[in-house]
User: Fold these one by one.
Assistant:
Number 1:
Amino acid sequence: MGLITLNLKRVLNWNFIFMSAVAAIFGMISLMNFGDISENIVFGVDIKYFMLDGYLCLFIFFAGEISKDMLQQEKITKRIEWKLANGIKISSIVKENLLSLWIGTLILLFPLLLMISIRLPNLILLLGTYFLILSVLYSAFINVLILWIRNMNWFKSIPIFATLLHILLVVLKCGIFMKTNNVWVLLLFSPVSIIVLTACGLCLMTKERIVSSYY
């Protein structure tokens, strides 16, 4: 809990409040006409799933942004090297930073999530659970990506890269769904893909790769 508290203190600033306001504005715009389009089907997929993926894009992008003050900062300041030298496992570093990043981003998106729960109470249970599961998985993926990157100048591209990856997965799952018409494709394709990518990153990760990072 100490690390979580420390990380949250690092990110709770005026920039954090600004990003939260931006996310709320985007959410407000998307919800304004929801009643008119809630039954629409786009490319054979209920538009509610597209909206959910849009909110996930916001989560991923802002998680990448606030990770600059969390794991990215620890890697830049060589604190991770100290942890590895003291026998802390790579998976443990990912786990201890995952919760900080996840909670921090949820706090940032709280106004947006509150609006969604009020505007769409019937969807909050199923899609809300799906959102929380995927947000945890993407938090882990972003942390693994931070550790994987050697050239730390690329850190600034993490929000865009992770968001584009999610968009690619959305396109792929919609394409597969149109071919199979199987709703499980919509629900399982993204989480399974992120789990596989994160697991592969962890399996291929070495301490030598992490400590050889440079600017």
Number 2:
Amino acid sequence: MMKFDTPSNLNKENQVDVILESFRTSFWLIEHQWFVRCHYYNKSLCLYTLPCTFAKSFQYLDKPFQSTCSNSTQLLKIHHIDVLFPCINLFWMNTFDISQLRSISIQIPDDFSIQSQLQSLFDRATNLYSLRLYSKQFSRHFFFDKITSQSIRRLDLRSIYLYANENICQQLCKTSLVNQCEVLLIHVENRSEILFLINHMKNLRALYVHSKDSIDQTNPYYTSIFIDELILWLKQHLPTSFAISPDEYFPSCVRIWISYVQFLNE
């Protein structure tokens, strides 16, 4: 992938034509069947080969482009995207093939319903596995209580600025997405909510959880003693087949690996 700036007084479409012309030879198109695509926006041009897998979210997807391939939108292999809803420009959602999309991070504004847009995206992203949500007022609208996806199995709710209490956990467990969830990442108000989630999420196999009652309020960065105490408490209340340990990347969180074989027999 190449990104470069061009003089602002030049016609961008003409510039792109000149660049792409060198890639329209028989060497590129016939002998090797290599294709390129060029997006243009303000002074910037972005040129890359097709198909292309982006290592991270790609900011030019909804910008004008030209390509040496007549059906270049089908050659993009999009595995992850970051989305800010509402999507004013739905060009990328309606144009690009997102059937290979595996994970998505969605930032939700406080005062906007995104249910229809989100359902439309999930209907097309048939291999979507992981959903991460960002929101400041999650408790106001459980917008995904009617949202469905046949493929999502991992939910990351840690970036919601809210500790889930018993009432919120009850509402979550009534939704289709949470019922089918196998890996959940969440912040809870009390450790009792951890037991509630494990007992009510029948497909859950891994839980990454941060409990507010296991934080030193005078020094939230010092968590070792409190996490050790929480782990001991969990081991006393959960089957011995469960693997419980601190999260190596987030010391204030606990990882719980669930073994249903012994769980169902105890």
Number 3:
Amino acid sequence: RVILAGLTHGVAIDSIIQKREMGALYIAFESVPFSLLVIHFLYRYWSVRRPHLIALFTKKSFIALLLSGTSFVIITWYLICFYGTVGEEDSEGRRALIAEYENTYGKRIEGGWMLLDHWSNDELNVRILITVIIMNVIMFSSVALASSLAFLTFHHIRSSQKLSVQAGLLQRKLLIALCAQAAVPSLFVYTPYMLTIDMPFMRLPVPIVHDLSVPLTTCFPVCDSAILILLISDYRRGLLGMIRKNQVREASSAMRVSTVAS
């Protein structure tokens, strides 16, 4: 759970194992969808600009390289969250968060805290400043890389002489769906998260954004899937077909029950 007390942002591990390692691991694995989106953008770019490279996605060595890159991002986030935050020692911010958590959820948690205490004893916390800068760089880099690949793919779809009209329309449709899919985590995860960790440096409390960050993150997978269903006609038809089949089955079952009863 995340909690805010004044300008101090904290993550509490409300589970059997109340260790900072668990919180860092949880946050680290949240980076996986973003890494997969970048890989997907690379696939779309190669399918238009470098079709001969698509075969690399079937090779074990290249798959291992992609897995290594994704693992590197996970490990980086883990190390940042574990070593770049505070909470293992007693402090005014930690005591405030413990009290706020107990007041909000009716449970007192003493251990496993990860804190972003931007202003410790009314002084800028340099350790937290460096941590937040690194987090921002990683998030901006991910968005910038995905945006660059999307822009280049759009450009080559328009300028390519090798793509047929039908193939170009298909590639464009798939890319638009991917961009919409990528916009969801950017709006639902990155934006509230960055506001939450950045604004306290300017001594601006963000309780509304902070409180919305977890519900928005929770809604992200559902909205991500919903966008694909709405944008891809084949998915829409498949979903409608499933609904109609269920309705037909229910109607048939009702008729059989009615016949037996009569």
Number 4:
Amino acid sequence: MLRFFLYSFVCLSLLTFNSSFSDPQDIYRPSNEWPVVIADGWFSAKTYTIGKYQASSKTNGSNRTSIFRTFPSAKNVFHYQLTSNASEYLITYGTVASISIDEKTLPKYLHSKHTGNADFFYAELIDQKDTSRPHWEMIIRKPHYLSLNKNNITGTLRSGNRSFMISAHNKFSFTNSYEKTCYEFKSKKKILAAVMLDKQPKVWVEEGLDSYESQVFAAAVSSLLQQ
């Protein structure tokens, strides 16, 4: 009997989740999904492709011009290239202490009264093909499972006066779970991109975006796949 009720609960949860993504404008429709192919051989470094973008193997540390040079306490820092026929990004990511970033420059939801002294996941995205373009940075605090249950805002992707909010949910898994965490990139209430982290991850990017925005989201998503 208990097994029956558990099965019924899971089915109902999945139906509820699927119905919440039935809007034809939703990011999770098949036409927005980019294929993710992971190459992880016995004698070769892990690499992957996201749609038309190819990630190189990662290298320990940051390059000489990276902003990570100003974060002496940064941990687990790596950099790699993400390339396509039309773009080439240098991406550096790692864990940065919240006190390393001027709180006045952060959106309120990343202030210490909301995050405590939690470390941030930080990624720097540099367009190497068009050096006139500004650098982008992504700052994310690790979400708690209660936050995942509610799809709360947990980070920002920004450059100059442009920014996108990042929320995270566990709706591809179960309540109170960290499995299959999914990050959504939003402009106001519109979801423009999403990535679900798993052994076989999934990526969605709004098909109507211009090529530059698609490149930026591809770079941001790729750094999350490196975790």
